[in-house]
Amino acid sequence: MEQTYFRKGFGLKGQIAGSLSQDYHSALVASIRNGGYALTVHGLTIRLAKEFGFCYGVDRAVEYAYETRTKFPSKRIFLIGEIIHNPHVNKRLEAMGITILQPQANGQFDYSPVVREDVVIIPAFGVPLVDFEYLHELGCPLVDTTCGSVLNVWKRVERYARDGFTALVHGKDFHEETKATTSQVAKYPDGKYIVVRDMEETEMVCNFIEGCGDVAELERCFHGKVSDGFCFSRDLVKVGIANQTTMLASESLAIAERVGQALAKKYGAAMLDDHFRSFDTICSATQERQDAVLELIEEPIDVMIVIGGYNSSNTNHLAKICSAKRRTYHIADASCIDPESGAIRYKPVRQVDEILQENWLDESVRMVGISAGASTPNNKVGEAIERVLRTKGLVVPS
Questions:
Q1: Which of 67, 158, 176, 177 is catalytic?
Q2: Each residue of 328-349: pLDDT tens digit?
Q3: Domain ranges, residue 90
Q4: In sequence order, what are the residues at sequence separation of 6 or more whose Cβ sits closer than 8 angstroms to the Cβ of residue 335?
Q5: What is the three-state SS of 97-113?
Q6: What is the CATH number of the domain that holds 87?
Q7: Would residue 177 show up in a list of annotated catalytic residues for this protein?
Q8: Residue 7 within a domain
């Protein structure tokens, strides 16, 4: 029987290694890492976080996409949405002849252009169960790049549904990963989920569990964030915690603790195991990058730059952490730094649109810290460093 599902690649690393290095490697970044994560040029110091950029899951997803193009040189290849949240990487895949399917206004994908002879790549975030089942039934080759950390969360959510626990997911209900994660409850007829964005929404749920909430207000707030037929009185009796892997780790842990407290208050500490489950499903790479910027901003940093797509959850959380202690600029790409005008385009934390800041690198700035989201390649970090130096009229030492 012809194999149509691929999850372990095609053994073509040797053939694509040169292209990957050319497209994403930075000799400058490698040099700074080898030099203790710091570079000083005429009084201006650049300090890199000790963990940043591509994580294992992103590396693997991009690598599999390149292998897929090499394996099927004459076939049409479709990618379900962005493979990761980085515009440079996705544009490069399009330049290789990979068609990126864009979600419709309702967030769902139209698979009508795809036929059995085509190849479909599943992104690092995964896809909802119904999408996977449709494509599997279609019989086209599926190349699954879903991150292993995401799969671990799916297993927990599936077990919750199997055992009659509602999955309370800390995440963004519109995010591809969260949609894929919550869909796993559909493997069981009575599977239920609810998505909370932050501690404020968690408090609403916990207050209701403790007997103080208003059903109408909950239904309004969580419209579209719960499974079909969700009943707040019935489906918050047994709760299991899960999270979108790229959320703020400290907040995920705090949410789990708060829900546990609410259920203990409602049913008694002695009965908590019958009503509450929580497992650490925080992605290690997300945790490491957040820990690294926390360490970096303890240094005498004057300005922090965080590089990554504006729709990248893990990048936004890095910027949020940094902005609490340091002047922070979240830029989508190195091109946001204009050495000629001395301006920088960036997205402020908790805002949607870019703004322009002139004279951001004035004479008072002696040390610039840099980090990058897990979907940002090293060459974009290297380009940003070069542009920072050029803004001050400096060049990278040869």
A1: 177
A2: 999 999 999 999 999 999 999 9
A3: 59-145
A4: 383
A5: CEEEECCCCCCCCCCCC
A6: 3.40.50.11270
A7: yes
A8: no
